[in-house]
Amino acid sequence: MAEAHQAVGFQFTVTPDGIDLHLSREVLKHIYLSGVTSWRKRAIRFKSLVKMFSGRRPLLYSFQTSLPRLPVPSVDDTITRYLESVRPLLDDEQYNQMEVVANDFKKDQAPKLQKYLILKSWWATNYVSDWWEEYIYLRGRSPIMVNSNFYAMDLLYVTPTHRQAARAGNAVHAMLQYRRKLERGEHAPLRALGVVPMCSYQMERMFNTTRIPGIETDFVQHLSDRKHLVVYHKGRFFKVWLYYGGCHLWPSELETQFQMILNDTTEPQPGELKLAALTAGNRVPWARARLKYFSQGANKASLEAIETSAFFLTLDDEVHGYDPDKLGSLDLYAKSLLHGKCYDRWFDKSFTLIAYKNGKLGVNAEHSWADAPIIGHMWEYVLATDCFHLGYTEEGHCKGDINKGLPPPTKLQWDIPLECEEVIEDSYMVAKVIADDVDFHGCLFDEFGKGLIKKSRTSPDAFIQLALQLAQFRDKGEFCLTYEASMTRMFREGRTETVRSCTSESTAFVRAMEDKNTTSAQRLDLFRKAADKHQNMYRLAMTGSGIDRHLFCLYIMSKYLSIDSPFLKQVLSEPWRLSTSQTPQQQLNMVDIKKFPRYVGAGGGFGPVADDGYGVSYIIVGENLITFHISSKFSSPETDSYRFGQNIRQAMLDIRALFDQKDKKEKEKEM
Questions:
Q1: Do residues 464 and 395 share a domain?
Q2: Domain Choline/carnitine acyltransferase spans what residues (predicted)?
Q3: Which of 63-77, 141-155, 186-200, 262-276 has the lowest mean pLDDT?
Q4: How far apart, in whole angstroms, are the C-alpha atoms of residue 591 and residue 586?
Q5: Pick from 290, 533, 579, 650: most CB atoms within 10 A?
Q6: Dist. CA 312–CA 230, nearest whole Å
Q7: Which of the residues are catalytic?
Q8: Are residues 428 and 507 in the same domain?
């Protein structure tokens, strides 16, 4: 997903203490630290397991200790699969050159790097995840808004109440219920395909978590149970207590608190309006400003209130959501969730809940601590609980009584000097340039969906990925390196792996589709071969035999050992001009969408990865709807998100036509 943006061309430097220090010691030190971190996590989880075993059946973390470690693939397998993945993108001369460079690496440098990597895999719980978090996310110095953060949308067709404070009240209460179940381990264990246990460690930092900026690297601050929330509305920050008398506030009480904020007509304090733009701009200016202007007094106390809050809530003063009568409504909704005004979301919080003026909701999530399915799990719970368990009165208010003795929200106080206001404005201008450049298009494809695709005995994901390859070729007249995010959560502390969706088989199929001399039967045969290839690559990625995380870790190891590798440099700098991801749905099965077909989510998305490429997130909704979230940059003369959406639509229809023609011929034979 959004990690593809960070995975290209990042810079990394090792500076061991002492010029004569043997570099192997430095490597062993980092391997040791990875192991220490892993053992600390295990100790924390063991305490949680003990709590669960005492009096109740273990649930969420039941299988954690029995999950296997992520294996380190062999160098031979990785190099072979890498060369296979780039073959359709290179001419003969380029490929032969790459083959020579790859084989030189395999023979000369790889054995030493692989030896240390295997050593790390024995000691650390996962040989990838700690380096992935650090070097792909936390060491990045460019803005995380758009480039890293992602978003999730509300229900597509249904808005259960148009009262902003009431919708926020139910949502926040549902999140507190979810957090309590999470802390007690009461959520059911996650399973792939409903059978294979998956790792749940990413869920541990969902709440009470903030990314803290640093000069060279950020770090993730995770705290124990936090009892307050910080709310942003029209340039003011408010602190709201979530507990009273040791119990969660009821939805009706939260609605009252939020309505007080909406009714507050005070003006923002100097520098307060755009303060959150610091989290949207470059990381180093934010880190320096934090040290200089927020280390004492009111500023320190107020910033601490934000960074230690359970999560962040924006009561937005705009109206958004999907409206079939308004062209581009989904596009504007996505852009609002992705970047807003560049100063009305706290992009460093694990997530910002956004409640719009018309009752619509959404989430903007920071990416370092977890991947999209984790937020998706929580979001499914919240939307289902909101609509089917909490509900609203006939007037659209939250249900329940109100304790009139609750303390009101308190405004955070700031003393921001003019020099700091200048830093805030500079960060805002950097962020605004990025936000204004996002060309977004939301495409609702309802001609057919998963139901028809499965009848054709094809994986829905493979079908869509091949449609994206066809759309890409029609859009630009060429193929490109394609990133599809897959998960490795069947392994302990697993996160993601890359499926390289542009293959020799997929390009052969696309060329056949564009060749008028190729018959429908030939095209269909090539389609099936390409789909089978994609499914096999997806299985390899999920089971620890992917290419890219192994190459990434070999590259990091080469930096620790000061080994210069032309092969790894080239691999890690190749641009992903098409970055794709499927949003999972029905992880919890709390809503029967056959019985309630209008209560479906709209999915989510992320910003463009390459300056001249596309980002595409898609969600397969029920049997008859697929929603595409397409992003690119206005500044690129080569891309157009709406055009690409039309190309995807036509590609989907053209592939379906192959099966329609096959069915027609079979019926004619029967007659």
A1: no
A2: 70-650
A3: 186-200
A4: 8
A5: 579
A6: 5
A7: 367
A8: no
Which of 561, 571, 566 has the alpha carbon at shortest distance from 114? Answer: 561
The residue ranking higher by pLDDT, 634 or 196, is: 634
The residues pairing with 497 across neighbouring beta strands, listed in sequence order, are 486
| DSSP 8-state code for residue 135 | I
Tell me, what DSSP letter sits at residue 229?
Answer: E
Taking 70 as the threshold, does the pLDDT of residue 116 lie above it?
yes
Q: How confident is the model at residue 56 (pLDDT cuts 50, 70, 90)?
A: low
Dist CA 650 CA 631 (whole Å): 18
Taking the model in full, what pTM does it have?
A: 0.92
- Residue 404's pLDDT band (boundaries 50, 70, 90)? confident
> Pairing state of beta strands 209-212 and 219-222?
antiparallel
Question: Looking at the 3D structure of the chain, how many domains does it have?
Answer: 3
Q: CA–CA distance from 73 to each of 76, 123, 327, 358, 646 (Å)?
A: 8, 17, 48, 51, 39
Please, which residues bridge with residue 620 across strands?
Answer: 626
The rounded distance, in Å, linking the Cα atoms of 289 and 421 is 10
Specify if 113 maps to a domain.
yes
In tens, the pLDDT along 267-282 reads: 999 999 999 999 999 9
The CA distance from 463 to 652, in Å, is 8
Name the 3-class secondary structure at 550: helix
Q: Do residue 490 and residue 610 come from a single domain?
A: yes
Angle at 438 between CA 436 and CA 439, to 5 degrees: 115
Same domain for 405 and 309: yes
Give the integer Cα–Cα distance in Å for 550 and 545: 9
Same domain flag for 183 and 295: yes
Is 50 exceeded by the pLDDT of residue 519?
Answer: yes
- pLDDT at residue 246 in the model: 87
Q: What confidence score (pLDDT) does residue 584 get?
A: 87
With respect to residue 4, please indicate whether it lies within any of the assigned structural domains.
no
Query: For position 532, which CATH number holds?
Result: 3.30.559.10
Return the H-helix or E-strand segment holding 141: none
Residue with tokens 């992705």: 338
> Domain for residue 476, yes or no?
yes
Residue 480 shares a structural domain with residue 459 = yes
